[in-house]
Amino acid sequence: MKKWLVFVFALSFSFFLTACGGSSKPYEKTAIEFIEAMYNGQGDKVQKMIYIPAEEFKEPGIEEMVKGKMAAAAHDAKKQADQYGGLKNVTVLESSHDESGKRADVRLALTFKNGPEGSREERVDLIKDGSTWKVNLD
Q1: In 1-138, which ranges are E strands?
Q2: Which residues, if any, are the signal sequence (predicted)?
Q3: Residue 89, beta-bridge partner list
Q4: Which of 31, 74, 113, 121 is a plausible cystine mate for 43, CB 3.0–4.6 Å?
């Protein structure tokens, strides 16, 4: 009986993990979050996801310039998405990371609510900053 319960629990847990599914790689999740934030016009969230090297912080105005440009880009992306009824889904087509595990590249497919018209692919370059994946604009 005990073995049976363990088996049922293990099977249920595996179904739960599959259902929660999506992307299991942290850098893929970051890429999806970034694209969703862009096409939903969430400029503040987009800004927080951008990697700015420490040496560039020393130059006056760099951080503000990057934040301003990303807020404008998110606004423009939302306008584009709204033309097609809004963003419906973002899925990973392929992803890879370097041997050090500090850089990754993710290719995504975007679908919109008005069907295949306007669907596109996006590529997101990521860099690991401490324990967090961030979008690399380099």
Answers
A1: 87-97, 103-112, 115-129, 132-135
A2: 1-19
A3: 111
A4: 74
Quote the radius of gyration of the chain (alpha carbons, Å): 19
| Closest alpha carbon to 73 in 50, 89, 57 | 50
**Any bridge partners for residue 95, and if so which?**
106
DSSP string, 36-59: HHHHTT-HHHHHHTB---HHHHTS
The answer on pLDDT for 61 being more than 80 is yes
Is the whole model's pTM more than 0.85, yes or no? no
The Cα–Cα gap between 138 and 133 comes to: 15
Q: How far is CA 137 from CA 8, 69, 82, 118, 132, in A?
A: 47, 12, 25, 24, 16
The residue whose two tokens read 């973002």 is 90
> CA–CA separation, 23 vs 109, rounded Å?
13
Q: Report the percent of the chain where pLDDT is more than 90.
A: 63
What does DSSP say about strands 87-97 and 132-135: parallel, antiparallel, or unpaired?
Answer: unpaired
Fold entry, domain 24-135: Nuclear Transport Factor 2; Chain: A, (3.10.450)
